[in-house]
C-alpha cells in the first residue's frame, strides 16, 4: 500500500477528526480510509489514533507521526511542482481558505479564471469564518479581512474593504429611515457575530461616533446577514464587495450614506516567504492584479 497516500489519509483524519469526512474529501470509501490508517499503524508499530463513538484523537505517537507526515507531504508537493513545471505550465494543488461571503461574492470567480489560465493546476478552497492554523491545515494562502493581520504570518494587501449600512425598501417604508447615527438605536439591526456585534463605529469627515445597537439577529457570516436584510429583517452593515450589486438593483437601499464604517484591508496571508512554490507566487501576483481596479 502506498505509504504517502496512507500519510495523506492519516493527516486528513487527524485534522478533521472524522473518518467519514476524510472519505468524502478524498473521494474514497470509509473502509479504505480505515485500511490506510491501519496499514500505517502496522508499518510504524504504534497506535496513532484513539477512537470513540464520538471523537477521534491523536496519541503521542500520532502527534509525532502527524508532524512528520505533513512535512513529507509538503516536501512531495514541492518536488512535484518544481519538477513538473514545463514551458511555464503550473501543476499541483493549492489549498486556500477565505470567508464564505468573500468566496461567494468575489474569490470563487477569480479562481475559476486563474484555473482557466493553468489547466494542469488544482485548487481546494475552504470557506470558513474560523481561524485555521495554516501549517497544520496545510493551507497555502488564507484570504482574510482585517485591520490587524496575524503578525506571525506574511501579509500581502490585496484590496481595501469598505462597508455600507443597508436595509430593504420594505423595512424602511415600515419603520422609517434613520436620519442620524443615533437613530439606529430605535431600529432592528442585523449584526455580525465576530465584528461589532453590539457597537457600530461610524465616521463622516472629521466626525466619528459609536452607536450601541439592538441586535435581534446575528450571524457569523455576512451572506446570511445579506439575505436577512433583503427579507426585511432590519438594517445591516455589510461589505461593499457583497452588497453593491443588490443596492444597484434596488433590492437594498443605503442607509446614512454620508457615514462610513471603518475601512479594513483584504490580505493574502501565508506562513513564510521561504520555499514559496511557483504556483503560489503566480496566484498571489494574479490576485493583486485582479483587485487593483475594484468593481466594488
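Q: What amino acid sequence fits the structure above?
A:
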Amino acid at each position: 500500500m502506498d505509504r504517502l497516500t496512507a500519510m495523506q489519509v492519516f493527516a486528513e483524519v487527524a485534522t478533521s477528526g472524522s473518518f467519514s469526512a476524510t472519505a468524502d474529501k478524498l473521494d474514497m470509501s470509509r473502509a479504505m480510509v480505515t485500511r490506510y490508517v491501519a496499514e500505517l499503524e502496522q508499518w510504524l508499530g504504534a497506535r496513532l489514533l484513539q477512537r470513540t463513538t464520538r471523537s477521534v484523537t491523536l496519541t503521542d505517537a500520532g502527534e509525532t507521526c502527524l508532524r512528520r507526515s505533513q512535512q513529507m507531504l509538503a516536501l512531495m508537493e514541492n518536488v512535484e511542482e518544481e519538477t513538473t513545471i514545463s514551458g511555464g505550465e503550473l501543476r499541483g494543488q493549492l489549498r486556500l481558505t477565505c470567508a464564505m461571503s468573500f468566496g461567494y461574492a468575489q474569490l470563487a470567480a477569480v479562481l475559476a479564471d486563474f484555473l482557466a489560465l493553468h489547466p494542469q493546476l488544482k485548487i481546494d478552497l475552504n470557506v470558513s469564518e474560523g481561524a485555521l492554523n495554516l501549517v497544520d491545515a496545510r493551507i497555502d494562502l488564507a484570504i482574510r479581512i482585517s485591520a490587524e493581520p496575524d503578525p506571525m504570518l506574511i501579509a500581502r494587501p490585496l484590496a481595501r474593504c469598505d462597508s455600507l449600512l443597508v436595509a430593504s425598501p420594505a423595512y424602511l417604508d415600515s419603520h422609517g429611515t434613520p436620519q442620524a447615527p443615533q437613530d439606529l438605536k430605535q431600529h432592528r439591526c442585523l449584526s455580525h457575530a465576530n465584528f461589532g456585534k453590539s457597537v457600530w463605529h461610524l465616521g463622516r469627515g472629521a466626525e466619528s461616533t459609536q452607536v450601541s445597537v439592538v441586535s435581534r439577529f446575528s450571524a457569523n457570516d455576512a451572506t446570511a446577514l445579506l439575505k436577512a436584510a433583503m427579507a426585511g429583517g432590519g438594517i445591516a452593515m455589510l461589505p461593499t464587495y457583497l452588497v453593491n450589486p443588490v443596492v444597484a438593483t434596488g433590492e437594498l437601499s443605503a442607509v446614512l450614506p454620508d457615514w462610513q464604517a471603518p475601512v479594513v484591508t483584504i490580505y493574502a496571508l501565508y506562513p513564510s516567504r521561504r520555499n514559496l512554490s511557483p504556483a503560489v507566487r503566480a496566484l498571489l501576483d494574479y490576485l493583486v492584479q485582479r483587485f487593483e481596479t475594484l468593481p466594488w
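Q: And what stands out in the fold?
A: The chain has a mean pLDDT of 89.
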